[in-house]
Design a protein that fits this description.
The chain is of the alpha+beta class. About 55% of the residues lie in helices and about 15% in strands. It contains five helices and four strands.
Length: about 140
């Protein structure tokens, strides 16, 4: 009887460990597949491959569309005043999970200016046009 009790206890412990491992495997796989290397992201988006040029990304979400108007206006003003600093800008929708994860976008709208794969300007959230314009001009004109 004592031997049977020990065997049953050992089997129950093994079953618990097996269940835990089975539960952790999908989480581990999800983490691995959601991690995209920097080179892979850049290879998937040709506009990120430009060297020695500012790349402007505006991360957009339909729920915050009213807040994005100030970003568009500020970008167009900077582009008009300093065409060499911002040649074009790319709108990235929140459904583009690769770029959203890669640049750790937590808030919409978010504006990034990249130079040689490095984020040089990051502007987030609901801001007035003059606030966005000041941040962009301060950072871009300094260069």
């Amino acid at each position: 009887m004592f031997v049977y009790y020990l065997e049953k206890k050992e089997v129950n412990g093994f079953v618990r460990k097996l269940r835990l491992a089975i539960c952790l495997i999908p989480i581990f796989l999800l983490l691995i597949t959601s991690c995209i290397k920097n080179d892979e992201v850049i290879a998937n988006y040709p506009f990120l491959q430009k060297k020695d040029e500012n790349i402007t990304l505006l991360f957009s979400d339909d729920h915050f569309i009213n807040d994005e108007g100030n970003y568009y206006d500020a970008l167009l003003d900077v582009k008009r005043r300093h065409p060499e600093k911002i040649r074009s800008f790319n709108i990235i929708h929140s459904s583009d999970r690769d770029l959203v994860r890669h640049y750790n976008i937590q808030e919409y709208p978010t504006l990034l200016v990249l130079h040689n794969e490095h984020v040089t300007i990051r502007v987030e959230g609901s801001l007035k046009k003059f606030e966005i314009l000041k941040m962009l001009e301060d950072a871009l004109v300094e260069k």
